[in-house]
Design brief:
The complex is a heterodimer. Chain A is an alpha/beta fold. Chain A folds into two domains: 217 residues, P-loop containing nucleotide triphosphate hydrolases (Rossmann fold), CATH 3.40.50; 63 residues, UreE, C-terminal domain (Alpha-Beta Plaits, 2-Layer Sandwich). Helix content of chain A is 33%, strand content 27%. In chain A, strands 7-8-9-4-10-11 form a six-stranded mixed β-sheet, with helices on both faces. The longest helix of chain A is centred in the middle third of the chain and has 16 residues. Chain A starts with a strand and ends in a 12-residue tail after the last helix. By secondary structure, chain B is mainly α. Chain B has eleven helices and no strands. Chain B is globular and about 60 Å long. The two termini of chain B are 29 Å apart. The chains are: A alpha/beta, B mainly alpha. At the A-B interface, strand 7 and helix 3 of A face helix 1 and helix 6 of B.
């Protein structure tokens, strides 16, 4: 592989009739990162992933995955693991038999089935029918299936959907372990806090178009920094906010807290200003924007990632 | 890895699913019961005139071909089961979303399709064999009960007829299986594909063959029935085999085209 990117697309597009589900997306996912793929429901995340997996053909554009042309998925899929749109299994078969069907098809040695079952903590239930599995167990079995080929690239669509906190923590641990041995993980999620915890890199897609791609640090750093202040008496804060507004420093009060759009070096001036108008600050700190705030600032979307339709 | 090795791997993968007890023994058991039951009924009514044309002579059953006579009569019902099993197996991959897992592990779609097709054909061939065995056992039991001579059955001509009859029914079953298999690809829903298949083969063909004179010579269900019986008054075995084969090749070609070229969105 000559490129530094494991996934690289140019003008990748998919139309369903008059609707452009994915519109000229140029992805560049660096090797060895955990990259989060975020966007509202219906933004085109799953459609993009399906194109990367050769399940649907692009209407236009192309690219490479693991250095091989997108049009020849048989060249790169043996080194790729995936779970798309939730886990899908044969309910009457056991977890082990389900993985065996995939291992046989991909000519993956059978002992690997036991290895991946152990990775996702399903060894004890491996011989039970999948129909008796909980949603979380099916999700873990889906991850086990994705890990079967010992992938260099793992593509996961909403892997934490429906998981309880322990399940989410377990999933996080698996993804870190996969990334720890040098594989690249491309994971879609609507849980921005989750993405922020496990990803170094993020791709934002909205209405089929690429909104941003790069490191989470770069995305967050591009947002205006904020100062947080708490006064001895909370009822004083609106007065301080009004005074800041007169100085072209936007500020808002949220409960006991005052948020001021200003860099860290404005803190001393804020403290002096508060003292001048007779307000005693008991807390003053700077705060980095969260991924969620950066996402909403960039996309201009509402606070919910839920959209009108799923793709 | 050669194409043959990949296809064999796909067949093994398919068999892991097909051999599950509820499907394997459920299907084989149902076909065995159908074959045995029809044999019992045909032997029971032989020599009696119940009206409605059911006046089979016992001499026919005592002939070398008599052993599998009833089995040949059950081919239509066996075919319906074959169609349903094949359609459900394929369509279920779409409706349950498992097809996307398969195509990620084996992106060569023709390999996946060939493996599934061969796996289902082997499954159906086994089903024919099991049904045949139960039909034979039922025939011997009923011949004893009705006092029908069986010496001709075990003669060299009888054994030849047995092999030929078994082969004819197996060919017919594979035809029904192919129809169901492609319907599963087209409809992508087990219920829809089975309903469409049965609606065409049962009421539609029956009505058409009554309304349009001579249509039994070109209707697929009638042709497969003629293949199973080694030829009928409507179509000789060879004509039925060639015409049904031509239909199935075209039908299978459509299935391959759709499976390979259609986006997998489920």
């Amino acid at each position: 592989m000559t490129s530094e990117f494991v996934i690289e697309t140019t003008g990748l597009s998919k139309r369903f009739g008059a609707i452009a589900a994915v519109d000229r997306v140029d992805l560049a996912i660096p090797a060895g990162v955990v990259s989060g793929f975020v966007g509202p429901n219906g933004a085109g995340k799953t459609t993009t992933m399906r194109m990367l997996l050769g399940l649907i053909r692009p209407s236009a554009g192309g690219g490479t995955v693991l250095g091989e042309a997108l049009s020849a998925p048989e060249r790169y899929l043996p080194r790729l693991g995936a779970m798309i749109e939730g886990p899908a299994f044969y309910a009457p078969l056991t977890g082990r038999a389900n993985l065996a069907t995939l291992a046989q098809l991909g000519r993956i040695p059978n002992p690997r089935v036991d290895e991946v079952l152990a990775v996702v903590n399903l060894t004890d239930r491996a011989d039970d029918p999948v129909s008796e599995y909980s949603h979380g167990m099916r999700q873990r079995l889906g991850i086990a299936a994705a890990l079967l080929p010992d992938p260099a690239l793992l593509v996961l669509d909403e892997p934490t959907n429906g998981l309880d906190p322990a399940g989410i923590a377990g999933m996080r641990s698996v993804l870190r372990s996969v990334a720890g041995r040098g594989a690249t993980v491309f994971v879609s999620s609507h849980l921005l806090a989750e993405v922020e915890q496990i990803c170094h890199h993020v791709v934002i897609i909205e209405a089929g178009r690429l909104g941003f791609q790069g490191s989470i640090d770069a995305l967050v750093a591009a947002q205006s920094p904020e100062l947080l202040a708490r006064a001895e008496r909370a009822e004083d804060l609106p007065r301080l906010a009004a005074r800041l507004g007169e100085m072209n420093r936007p500020a808002r009060v949220d409960g006991e807290w005052l948020y001021v759009a200003a860099p860290e070096n404005f803190a001393a001036e804020l403290n002096r200003l508060a003292a001048e108008i007779g307000i005693t600050l008991v807390h003053l700190s700077s705060r980095r924007a969260s991924l969620e705030e950066a996402f909403f600032a960039r996309t201009g979307a509402g606070r919910s990632l839920a959209g009108p339709e799923a793709t | 890895m050669t194409a043959v090795e990949m296809i064999l791997a796909a067949v093994r993968s398919e068999w892991t699913k097909l051999r599950r007890p509820t499907l394997l023994w459920g299907t084989y058991g149902a076909l065995a019961v159908i074959a045995a039951l029809l044999t019992v009924l045909i032997f029971a009514q032989a020599g009696h005139n119940f009206g409605r044309g059911l006046n089979l002579m016992t001499a026919v059953l005592a002939s070398p071909a008599g052993l599998l006579y009833a089995f040949g009569e059950s081919a239509g019902l066996l075919g319906v089961v074959a169609l349903c099993v094949a359609a459900a197996q394929l369509a279920n991959e779409y409706s349950s979303g498992t097809l996307r897992n398969l195509l990620v592990r084996q992106p060569r779609r023709t390999v996946v399709l060939a493996g599934k097709y061969l796996g289902i054909l082997i499954f159906l061939a086994g089903a024919v064999l099991v049904a045949c065995v139960f039909g034979i056992v039922a025939a011997f039991v009923m011949a004893h009960v009705r006092g029908i001579p069986t010496a001709a059955w075990t003669s060299s001509v009888g054994l030849h007829d047995l092999g030929q009859g078994l082969g004819d029914v197996a060919l017919s079953m594979l035809g029904y299986g192919t129809i169901g298999f492609v319907l599963g690809i087209i409809m992508r829903s087990p219920v829809s594909s089975i309903v469409v298949g049965l609606a065409f083969l049962l009421p539609f063909e029956t009505i058409l063959s009554v309304v349009v004179n001579g249509s039994a010579r070109w209707l697929p269900g009638s042709l497969l029935d003629a293949v199973a019986r080694g030829g009928t008054t409507n179509a000789s075995f060879f004509a039925a085999l060639v015409t049904a084969g031509a239909y199935l090749v075209g039908w299978a070609g459509l299935g391959v085209y759709l499976f390979v070229h259609r986006d997998v969105t489920s």
